[in-house]
Amino acid sequence: MVYWQGWLLYFRYYYVRFLNSFLETLLLEKGDISTEIFRDNCEFTDPTNSVSSLAKYQKALTILFNPEQSFVELVTPLEIDVPKREITGRIRSGGVLKLPWNPRISSYESTIKWKIDDDGLIESQIQQWSIPASQALRETFTPSF
After folding, report:
1. What is the pTM (predicted TM-score) of this model?
2. How close are the terminal C-alpha atoms of the chain, in Å?
3. Is residue 145 part of a domain?
4. What is the DSSP string of 38-52?
5. In total, how many domains does the chain have?
6. What PANTHER family does the entry give (predicted)?
């Protein structure tokens, strides 16, 4: 418990840097998220996909949105729930995917929940979207050229 409290103080100090890095990574698709706070086998889940590997998630980030035609913005500040060991935030994003037919994804919001393990590392990242997964998949396969 002492480690968790110490980690929480560390996280409160650095979470702005972490979230900015996370949002920048989503927008710029660099895949260089702050790996030191994630477990190597962290589970990343959204309504259409689940990956249980930090390396695979980083690779996936490099092939998502075209940064010149897309956006990600913070909607609410992070909320830290100490008893549950959870951190929650809300973002809005949308834009054009890096696919040959340039599909456009409508603006949508995501609630992102990070769960923290006993060592103070993020063990899972779970996204819930404001749009149905079927809409996101349909837009993924709809050309916009």
Report:
1. 0.77
2. 54
3. no
4. EEEEEEEEETTEEE-
5. 1
6. OS04G0578200 PROTEIN, SNOAL-LIKE DOMAIN-CONTAINING PROTEIN
pLDDT tens digits along 68-120: 888 888 888 878 887 898 888 898 989 898 899 999 999 999 999 989 888 88
Phi, psi for 116 (deg, rounded to 5): -105, 135
Residue 121 lies in a domain: yes
Answer whether 33's CB lies under 8 Å from 22's CB: yes
Residue 106 sits in a domain of what CATH number?
Answer: 3.10.450.50
Give residue 36's pLDDT band: very low, low, confident or very high (50, 70, 90): confident
pLDDT confidence bin for 28, thresholds 50/70/90? very low
The tokens describing 13, both together, are: 């100090």
Structural domain for 68, as ranges:
2-140
* DSSP-derived 3-state class of residue 93: strand
CA dist 88 and 73 (Å) reads 15
Note whether residue 19 is domain-resident: yes
Q: What are phi and psi of 58, to 5 degrees?
A: -60, -40
Residue 144: is its pLDDT beyond 80?
A: yes
